[in-house]
Design brief:
2 domains; six-stranded parallel sheet; Rossmann fold; alpha/beta; 277 residues; 30% helix
Amino acid sequence: METAPPDTDRSQPLITGTTRLYAVLGDPVAQVQAPTMVNPLLAALGRDAVVLPVHAPADRFDTVVRGLKAIGNLDGLLVTVPHKADVRRFADRVSAAVELSGSANALRREPDGGWHADNFDGGGFVAGLRAAGHSAAGARVTLVGTGGAGCAIAPALLTAGADHVVLCDLDPRRTVALAARLEARWPGRTTRATRPVTDGADIVVNATPLGLRAEDPLPFDPAGLAPTTLVADIVMKPRETRLLRAATALGLPVHYGAPMLESQLGLYLDYFGLGHG
């Protein structure tokens, strides 16, 4: 007597021998939300594809990326902390967003076998702000952290009309390189600092990984901010970081990390050819 096949979860893709693979690279990777958010969309669209988290330790990053690129049914990569700047060198062609930011958060295999890189972090962050009722237009912004995500967010804020962006990073080499790229397009609208400079800021953004762990120190002290200053965090898990808890306790408006990714989902699907188009 034959038994019925087990019920399948229609909210997740059915993985078969023909399934196309997409990997999310990070170190750590436990916090990534893309598989949880993208895979139900792929199932709903009837796509034979799945997004998987891949822990790529920094000291083995080259080995991991080269191995993944060699997999015949792997069509794309999503990239998170701390690899966004480093992964650019694995692309044969890059978008204007990658040129401007110096980092990438998505790579796709092209029909000719080459790899193209793009960056949707900045656009996703600004779109997430807008969806929550916040505007960067005319704002003075302090951006804390100019790693892969921060380098993408800075030009997106300026494109959205931010009046001025203070680029803050403990490593001055990062801010020097980013500021040079931004100055060429938006002269006089950025300054650099090795510590968070929040005086007069309308928006202060944590674009560092600080907040992923409960024991992490605050990326900046929100206690001295003006009552209307928006405190934004790009950390998605936990949803309420130590920084956002502290800002909320002070009565400051806050913006969570998840909208940055949520606003990118459609862009990812279209980039990989998995969307409605």
